[in-house]
Amino acid sequence: xxxxxxxxxxxxxxxxxxxxxxxxxxxxxxxxxxxxxxxxxxxxxxxxxxxxxxxxxxxxxxxxxxxxxxxxxxxxxxxxxxxxxxxxxxxxxxxxxxxxxxxxxxxxxxxxxxxxxxxxxxxxxxxxxxxxxxxxxxxxxxxxxxxxxxxxxxxxxxxxxxxxxxxxxxxxxxxxxxxxxxxxxxxxxxxxxxxxxxxxxxxxxxxxxxxxxxxxxxxxxxxxxxxxxxxxxxxxxxxxxxxxxxxxxxxxxxxxxxxxxxxxxxxxxxxxxxxxxxxxxxxxxxxxxxxxxxxxxxxxxxxxxxxxxxxxxxxxxxxxxxxxxxxxxxxxxxxxxxxxxxxxxxxxxx
Length: 350
Fold this sequence. Notes:
Layout: E1 4-10, E2 15-21, E3 23-26, E4 30-34, E5 41-45, E6 60-66, H1 88-98, E7 104-109, H2 119-128, E8 132-137, H3 144-150, E9 156-159, H4 164-175, E10 180-186, H5 191-198, E11 205-206, E12 209-210, E13 219-224, H6 240-250, E14 258-261, H7 263-272, H8 277-282, E15 292-295, E16 300-302, H9 309-312, E17 314-315, H10 322-328, H11 330-341
Parallel strand pairs: 6-7, 6-15, 7-8, 8-9, 9-10, 10-13, 13-14
Antiparallel strand pairs: 1-2, 3-4, 4-5, 11-12, 15-16, 16-17
């Protein structure tokens, strides 16, 4: 679709947004504007209605295409369960059902999505259906062919494991002109490093040179550690003081690249600071079952990837479609009802 320039006014904050968009979702009570090149998205209520608490289908689908991983990281929230990878046929079924409403998919699961046997076909199918694919990788075994395919993605994130393959992958992606992020888990043991990054310190600078081209880096995204899966018995949760300090500093970041947070961390930030109207406009708490969803390799749909499959999972079938589960299943209604009472809580228990 041809890009259209839109001038949008937020009356409450008196903020004017002028941007180009090429994908539009128009519903009775809300509309969504999306730029498939930059990833910029605006969701707003229409006809005098407030911004929606939840949308009629997810705007983002977290799709677990990987069923197993050989790395066995001690903190992996997915655990060491092994099952077949998602089939290309099932991936296509998901895209075919949601493509008119979903703007982005995050490819994930247990392991590096770029190692899926049909990674190329998966990425191409999403992009050919006007859905932007993104993924996160450890960087292990990242090949030139996978990097070439990754050019079709909106962004690629590399998890910061502090290893040579981490930085080689980051640089290779940057050199290919791909929007590259670093994912860093915020734990009580990484809190000092996280705060230094926010203050503008380059933690990847060592002995006269930097292992990361921070001027070309798109963003660093901080992910709250959740004791789940392999990390269920790890006491890595940030302390209350660390979370409070992070909350105070992250809105005043001094680094040259952008910083971001997952919704789980936003939940804590909004409880620790008094947000301005403009911050409220751009920050959202838990979006599980509201604007985003997780689908496992065996096609079980959950409000988010941290939600218990036993408590919230619903198997996708011919009758129980994504639309049906999203709008009518009791599991999703129950998840939403908890968030309705407190948007900054975690129904999954973290």
